[in-house]
Amino acid sequence: MRSILVLNGPNLNLLGSRQPEVYGRVTLKMIDTNCIAQGKSLGAQVVCQQSNHEGVLIDAIHAAKGCHHGIVVNAGAYTHTSIALMDALASVELPCIEVHLSNIHAREDFRQVSHISKVALGQICGFGSLGYTMAISALIAHLEETG
Ligand code: DQA
């Protein structure tokens, strides 16, 4: 069975109450539940993890090798700053889809730079929590296509 890691970075544990006008009212728990259900409906296992710490996220990416077939990642603000996370994703050579709830390209200049995009198959942003289930469908389709 295919297995996908859904990895969320800093401050995303606060979804639901954090700037709802930007990020919506859906909690991370609801997102995780939807991701697991979406995976199940497509015959894949989904495992969800969140951390506010860069090193913990890097360790989770390293541990994904040999354990999961792909990664859906919302690295939060580390998207714009962390070469270490980009390197970790490149190192494990797992297909990865980048997700953001907000449309980072329509926001402040500093949010328009993504180091993650350089190593991701693609980016989904601006669709709120729906972006995660879109990414799971896209990743499973990619895995099926590439065998
Ligand atoms: C975010 C966008 C980032 O710029 C921000 O730092 C976040 C959330 C998003 O999902 O829209 O924490 O990744």
UniProtKB/TrEMBL annotation:
The gene is aroQ. Signal peptide: none annotated. One of its GO terms (molecular function) is 3-dehydroquinate dehydratase activity. GO terms for biological process: amino acid biosynthetic process; aromatic amino acid family biosynthetic process; chorismate biosynthetic process; quinate catabolic process. PROSITE patterns: DEHYDROQUINASE_II (PS01029). Coiled coil: none annotated. Pfam families: DHquinase_II. The record marks R18 as: Transition state stabilizer. SUPFAM superfamilies: Type II 3-dehydroquinate dehydratase. This is 3-dehydroquinate dehydratase. NCBIfam families: aroQ, PRK05395.1-2, PRK05395.1-3, PRK05395.1-4. Belongs to the type-II 3-dehydroquinase family. It catalyses: 3-dehydroquinate = 3-dehydroshikimate + H2O. Its EC number is 4.2.1.10. Homododecamer. The keyword Amino-acid biosynthesis applies. Catalyzes a trans-dehydration via an enolate intermediate. Pathway: Metabolic intermediate biosynthesis; chorismate biosynthesis; chorismate from D-erythrose 4-phosphate and phosphoenolpyruvate: step 3/7. The lineage of its organism: Bacteria, Pseudomonadati, Pseudomonadota, Alphaproteobacteria, Rhodobacterales. It comes from Parasedimentitalea psychrophila. Substrate binds at N74, H80, D87, L101, S102, R111. Keywords: Amino-acid biosynthesis, Aromatic amino acid biosynthesis, Lyase. InterPro entries: DHquinase_II (IPR001874), DHquinase_II_CS (IPR018509), DHquinase_II_sf (IPR036441). The active site is at Y23 (proton acceptor), H100 (proton donor).
